[in-house]
């Protein structure tokens, strides 16, 4: 059985995409370091597939195929991309498989198969649904020491409260925290 890991690059105030300034991770650029990249790659695992919403897939497909030759780009480009979409016939950046129809049933089926862990990056709508359905095993928050104020948040306003259990934290030389949590379930009242 595969694990589903949410991996989000996030500001201290919960923003994953700054309004009007999303040139792939532009606000994260000053905090990147070789040590941080190695820690992030370790958090993803050496072998993974991607589980993405359609919008994130479209953004990634414009960046990653042209990102150059380095471990994270090579791993992302080689990963099978499982995409929640109503337009699977228009997916071009592969290897890729469309999850159309009943997306949740498709994800449950995919999770029950043997294979590498499924990493969800971006895809805030999908993230909220996966947490709400109890399909998430781990949440990895890559927390940058910035406050962005406005922008797309990690979760929708409609998700019910969730409980996470702390697993580990690592700090990069530039002050980025890579925090890993196990998803427990609904927050107890």
Polypeptide structure, described:
- With 189 residues, this protein is α/β, with parallel strands linked by helices.
- The protein is built from five helices and ten strands.
- The strands form two sheets. An eight-stranded mixed beta sheet has the order 5-4-3-6-1-7-10-9, with helices on both faces.
- The chain starts with a strand and ends with a strand.
Summarize this, please?
By secondary structure, the chain is an alpha/beta fold.
What integer value in Å does the Rg equal?
16 Å
Instruction: Give the H and E element order.
Output: EEHEHHEEHEHEEEE
Strand element count: 10
Characterize the main sheet.
Answer: 8 strands, mixed
**Gap from first CA to last CA:** 31 Å
Question: What is the name of the CATH class of the domain at 20-134 and 148-160?
Answer: Alpha Beta
Strand content: 25-35%
What is the architecture of the domain at 20-134 and 148-160 at the second tier of CATH? 3-Layer(aba) Sandwich
Please name the CATH topology of the domain at 20-134 and 148-160: Dihydrofolate Reductase, subunit A
Widest beta sheet: strand line-up:
5-4-3-6-1-7-10-9
Mean pLDDT, rounded to whole units?
Answer: 88
């Amino acid at each position: 059985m595969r694990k589903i890991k949410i991996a989000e690059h996030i500001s201290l105030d919960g923003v994953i995409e700054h309004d009007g300034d999303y040139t792939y991770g532009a606000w994260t650029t000053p905090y990147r370091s070789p040590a941080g990249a190695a820690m992030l790659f370790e958090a993803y695992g050496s072998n993974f597939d991607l589980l993405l919403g359609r919008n994130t897939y479209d953004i990634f497909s414009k960046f990653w195929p042209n990102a150059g030759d380095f471990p994270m780009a090579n791993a992302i480009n080689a990963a099978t991309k499982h995409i929640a979409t109503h337009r699977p016939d228009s997916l071009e950046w592969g290897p890729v498989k469309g999850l159309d129809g009943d997306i949740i049933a498709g994800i449950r089926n995919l999770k029950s198969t043997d294979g590498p862990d499924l990493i969800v990056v971006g895809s805030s709508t999908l993230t909220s649904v996966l947490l709400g359905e109890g399909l998430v095993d781990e949440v990895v928050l890559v927390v940058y020491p910035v406050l962005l104020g406005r922008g797309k948040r990690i979760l929708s306003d409609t998700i019910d409260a969730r409980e996470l259990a702390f697993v580990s934290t690592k700090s990069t030389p530039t002050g980025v925290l890579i925090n890993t949590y196990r998803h427990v379930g609904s927050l107890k009242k």
